[in-house]
Backbone:
């Protein structure tokens, strides 16, 4: 009985893929030192970046939804509305149609004990670091 050499390659690939996916799924979504999550939206972001960000936030226990995303002809992100919810129940939403001129727009979740500003959405210019 002869075996097809391609079958062995396919089986090896599938075993490697299954092992990789299983080990990634077993990893905790956040490390012990990850107390602050800050996201700043910029005009250089593309839809793929926003989708990856949404996935990455879900892994940290933060739900991120985009309600309206606008790009100009040059491909710059110029506006978006978003909703964010932390797994601790904090939630908020913000939007802008002028992301090109926004200085620091996004959200910040500070899970550290005694945080002065544990949750913020919209303009992040007023965020003061924990003392």
Residues:
């Amino acid at each position: 009985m002869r075996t097809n050499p391609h079958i062995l390659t396919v089986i090896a690939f599938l075993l490697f893929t299954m092992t990789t996916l299983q080990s990634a799924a077993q990893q905790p979504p956040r490390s012990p030192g990850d107390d602050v999550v800050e996201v700043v939206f910029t005009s250089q972001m593309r839809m793929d970046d926003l989708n990856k960000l949404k996935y990455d936030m879900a892994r940290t226990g933060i739900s991120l939804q985009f309600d309206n995303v606008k790009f100009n002809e040059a491909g710059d992100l110029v506006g978006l509305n978003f909703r964010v919810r932390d797994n601790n129940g904090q939630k908020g939403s913000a939007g802008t149609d002028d992301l090109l001129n926004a200085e620091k727009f996004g959200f910040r979740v500070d899970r550290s004990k005694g945080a002065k500003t544990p949750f913020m959405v919209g303009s992040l210019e007023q965020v003061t670091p924990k003392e």
Q: What stands out?
A: DSSP finds two helices and six strands in the chain. Residues 35-123 form one domain.
